[in-house]
Specification:
Blueprint lengths: L6 H23 L8 H10 L2 H24 L1 H28 L13 H17 L4 H23 L9 H7 L10 H4 L2 H14 L3 H25 L16 H32 L8 H8 L1 H13 L12 H26 L12 H4 L1
């Protein structure tokens, strides 16, 4: 029996998409004099949740999908398919960079820049390997927890490790940030993926409505607890020789991981409320939440096309020229346009299968 789609996960992906679009629009289009405003600082903090959510949901999805496949084709084959998915995303990272280069994005060295798809692909491969180590869900959860904690807690040390300077820049840029070469580094960003995989194992294991409710309450309590503990820990003296709260601090990592975890039951609550509203007002099945969930179901496609819209030549006349409020309004307008394009893509791809070399684009187009 196929795994029933968890619509609240589409809600959460959709929220992450809107945050991502807002992050890129406000970064690319807001004028310099507005970047010191308090409102802009708030938008930066909210924008910073897009990448953690996408990585968290990637881990959640890979664990859920592997568990569902294992019931049909066995543990080994399911693990192989999980690894293949990670490799596919990693390959897409380079195809995305190639597209950017062809559209005129700067020096050729940018092709090797480490961005979120590079980190996501490698982290998914690592999560797939961990998942493959055991057919026991409890053991897998333990492995994911160890991996999450190990990466988060070692990040300040990795960022300052002198021996890494001996590595080629193209490799070092994956491990820790290098100016001009890194947008996202594996430490600590990759840790959100096994953190999400824990949630994925728990969500898949909740087979009944009662167990689902209990599990969601547990996620809410765990997420809020992680936020509170990590926030309190951030005021304690650091155990590291060098640590920056906003970049490498484990406390900040666990605050964001707690937010991601707590947003799962919140998204489920929104989906429940949406269902009640549909029944009460005889709305169409996907109204009024169709924009968010549609964007969520095609999150990689939206990522693929919107970056050029925000940063590319098409946006050159308004780069760094708009008041912050206009940038926020422009975010809404761009999301509406992306929704229309996504619906067009869905109509064109309905019933079509990608074959041969084109199959690599399945995560983007399907």
């Amino acid at each position: 029996m196929p795994l029933a789609r968890k619509v609240y996960l589409d809600w959460l992906r959709g929220v992450a998409v809107v945050i991502m679009v807002g992050a890129h629009v406000t970064d690319a289009w807001t004028r310099v004099e507005d970047r010191g405003r308090t409102l802009y600082m708030y938008t930066v903090f909210v924008a910073g949740m897009a990448a953690p959510l996408f990585l968290f949901l990637a881990g959640l999805t890979i664990a859920m999908a592997a568990s569902a496949r294992a019931e049909k084709v066995g543990h080994r084959t399911a693990a192989q398919q999980a690894l293949k998915r990670g490799l596919q995303v990693f390959a897409l990272a380079f195809l995305f960079r190639l597209q950017s280069q062809l559209l005129g994005w700067g020096a050729l060295i940018n092709f090797l820049k480490v961005d979120i798809l590079n980190v996501m692909g490698i982290a998914m491969i690592a999560a797939g390997l961990l998942w493959s180590l055991s057919s026991s869900r409890l053991i897998r959860i333990g492995l994911f927890a160890i991996a999450t904690g190990a990466v988060a807690m070692s990040t300040p040390l990795v960022r300052e490790a002198g021996m890494l300077a001996a590595l080629p820049d193209a490799i070092e840029a994956y491990i820790r940030p290098l100016p001009g070469r890194t947008n996202f580094a594996l430490f600590p960003w990759m840790a959100f993926v096994p953190g999400g995989a824990i949630a994925g194992e728990l969500v898949f294991a909740a087979k009944s409505e009662a167990r689902e409710r209990l599990m969601q309450i547990g996620l809410l309590v765990s997420g809020l607890g992680a936020i509170a503990i990590a926030y309190a820990a951030s005021f304690r003296p650091s155990i590291y020789p060098v640590a920056n709260f906003w970049t490498s601090s484990p406390a900040f990592f666990f605050i964001r991981l707690g937010i991601c975890t707590a947003m799962l039951p919140i998204a489920r609550g929104i989906d429940w409320f949406h269902g009640v509203a549909r029944r009460m007002y005889a709305l169409a099945p996907d109204v009024p939440g169709r924009v968010i969930t549609t964007l969520g179901r095609s999150s990689l496609f939206v990522y693929w096309i919107h970056v050029e819209m925000a940063y590319g030549g098409i946006a050159k006349p308004i780069k760094r020229t708009l008041p912050l409020e206009i940038s926020l309004i422009a975010t809404v307008a761009l999301c509406a346009l992306l929704y229309a394009i996504t619906k067009w893509k869905d109509r064109k791809m309905a019933g079509r299968e990608l074959t041969g070399a084109w199959r690599i684009f399945a995560p983007v187009l399907k």
